[in-house]
Design a protein that fits this description.
The complex is a heterodimer of chains A (about 220) and B (about 300).
Chain A: H1 2-7, H2 9-41, H3 46-60, H4 64-74, H5 84-110, H6 113-121, H7 126-141, H8 143-156, H9 168-174, H10 180-212
Helix pairs in contact in A: 2-3, 2-5, 2-9, 2-10, 3-5, 4-5, 5-7, 5-8, 6-7, 8-10, 9-10
Chain B: H1 12-42, H2 48-52, H3 61-94, H4 99-114, H5 117-127, H6 137-162, H7 166-174, H8 179-209, H9 213-216, H10 221-236, H11 241-272
Helix pairs in contact in B: 3-4, 3-6, 3-8, 3-10, 4-6, 5-6, 6-8, 7-8, 8-11, 10-11
Classes of the chains: A mainly alpha (about 220), B mainly alpha (about 300).
């Protein structure tokens, strides 16, 4: 049993690193795009608002598996073929961006109107008041919900297993022919692998939250 | 919805700027759409003949997709039913006065919320056979969905029960009701009204997750579309591939948007209803945890 684990350790380690890489890259993409979308959603320019609303509503109501499907099998139809791993990063990132946008927007709405009014009153433009006054406060209030979105995203990266990315969940499938005790060990290893990412994330988010918290 | 305080009522110059930006924005959005349509058109994907297969009963496609939608809905309905019942029991268990029950139930809930749903499904489908239990893809998918969602729903129910004003249960105890009566007659009826929109929203999540059946090979919408493609490809090449995938995706989106709208409608109605007056707005516990409170 231990021998089985030692034999398959390189496979599990690589799978874990793949999941980690996928999570970090997709998380960055989601954070940047989600913040941009949130800015669009509160902007005075109607088409941008419409575009962002459409984006969020579409992705929130589409299963992530379908997003994978469109990125990996649909994009080649408009001559943009992407590899499986790039496709997975794009799918998870684009999907999560919709949820990041909603979290950030709820944060923007939670900033008391007086702040934005004061920013306007001292003559800041829309961009300035958003950048200098509203967003810095909004990000502080959205640390916990954002953390939850990212933890949920780490769990969602498992879907990449169905699309030829050899991450943690895929290793479970790959080793599933082993006999009972051994495969159970793999299952435990996979679960621990996910915890190794989510537990520290939750810890860091908690620390950051206490650090930046503002009393209102 | 925008936050109007972020910008003043625009004056003439600002209005002109916004108008220009609006034009540029519109042009950009239109250009993006036109570009995608152009690329699709160049590859012949917009050919009406290619799309007509979706509506032509002789090809068997509408029937196959219809049945696949029914299978998807059946998995979602069965899973939701069991998850609701089990979730309710777990929620009551987590609020129990007995420490042992509380700890056991909390462990179960946190465990199933901490691991990805696909891992649960894989464990049921690939690991259980090593122990001599062989599940069909339908059973593995449904049980996986039930285990995961009962844990999520348990937390929703708990938040709902806790949202009922404490005076309600105090009054109920005051007139001599027993613990189970307080829960059954006073707390749950009020909590359920408050939770209804969240429950429908969770149904959307569940319906979305049922597409994981694709990965283990249960014939839900996506897998059905894929198998139709595999059926057509030897005879027609890639002729209908894109159309079938778009159809499957659109069906998901339409069903889910309708459900989301229903959730919003119920929420608006329940907020006005006097029957939820003794509950506070449902606030899910918000601290970040490994289990990730948001189900996305």
């Amino acid at each position: 049993m231990v021998q089985f684990f030692i034999d398959n350790f390189p496979l599990l380690r690589d799978a874990f690193l793949k999941t980690l890489e996928l999570s970090v890259l997709a998380g960055l993409l989601a954070l940047v795009l989600g913040t941009l979308l949130a800015a669009f959603r509160v902007s005075p320019i109607t088409p941008l608002r419409g575009l962002a609303t459409f984006y969020v509503e579409t992705f929130r109501n589409t299963p992530l598996t379908v997003v994978f499907f469109f990125i990996i099998f649909g994009l080649p139809q408009i001559d943009f073929a992407v590899g499986f791993f790039t496709g997975a990063v794009l799918s998870v990132g684009l999907y999560t961006a919709a949820f990041v946008c909603e979290a950030v927007r709820s944060g923007i709405n939670a900033v008391p109107p007086g702040q934005a009014e004061a920013a306007r009153a001292i003559g800041l433009t829309f961009g300035q008041s958003l950048r200098e006054v509203v967003l810095p406060q909004a990000f502080r209030t959205v640390v916990p919900p954002l953390g939850n979105v990212f933890i949920a995203m780490v769990k969602n990266t498992s879907i990449a297993a169905g699309f030829a990315v050899t991450e943690l969940t895929a290793s479970l499938q790959r080793l599933s022919n082993a006999n009972g005790g051994d495969i159970l060990l793999v299952l435990v290893a996979v679960v621990i692998g996910y915890m190794l990412i989510t537990l520290p994330t939750a810890y860091v988010v908690g620390r950051v939250e206490r650090r930046v918290a503002i009393l209102r | 919805m925008s936050t109007p305080v972020l910008f003043d009522l625009p004056g003439p110059r600002a209005r002109a700027r916004i108008r220009i930006a609006t034009v540029i924005g519109t042009v950009l959005v239109v250009a993006l759409v036109a570009f995608v349509l152009f690329r699709l058109g160049r590859n012949g994907q917009l050919d009406p003949q290619r799309w007509s297969v979706l509506f032509d009963p002789a090809s068997g496609v509408p029937q196959a997709l219809g049945q696949a939608l029914l299978r998807t809905l059946r998995v979602a309905a069965v899973a939701m039913l069991f998850a609701t019942v089990l979730g309710l029991l777990l929620a009551v268990g987590r609020l129990s006065d007995h420490r042992a029950v509380r700890i056991a139930v909390t462990t179960v809930i946190e465990f199933f919320r901490a691991i990805p749903l696909l891992v649960v499904i894989f464990a049921l489908y690939f690991v259980l056979p090593s122990f001599g239990i062989r599940l069909s893809t339908y059973a593995a998918l449904t049980i996986g969905l039930v285990l995961y969602n009962m844990a999520v729903l348990a937390e929703i129910f708990r938040a709902g029960i806790l949202s009922v004003d404490r005076g309600q249960s105090e009054a109920a105890y005051g007139i001599g009701l027993r613990k189970s009566q307080v829960m059954r007659l006073v707390l749950l009826p009020q909590a359920v009204r408050r939770m209804l929109p969240v429950l429908v929203a969770q149904l959307v999540v569940l319906l979305k997750d049922s597409s994981l059946g694709f990965i283990i090979g249960y014939f839900e919408l996506l897998r059905q579309a894929r198998s139709l493609v595999e059926f057509f490809t030897p005879r027609f090449g890639n002729e209908y591939t894109f159309q079938l995938y778009v159809a499957a995706g659109l069906i998901y989106i339409i069903v889910n948007v309708l459900l989301s709208q229903l959730a919003k409608y119920i929420e608006r109605r329940s907020r006005r209803s006097p029957k939820t007056a003794a509950t506070t707005a449902l606030v899910m516990p918000d601290a970040p945890s490994v289990t990730g409170q948001t189900s996305i």
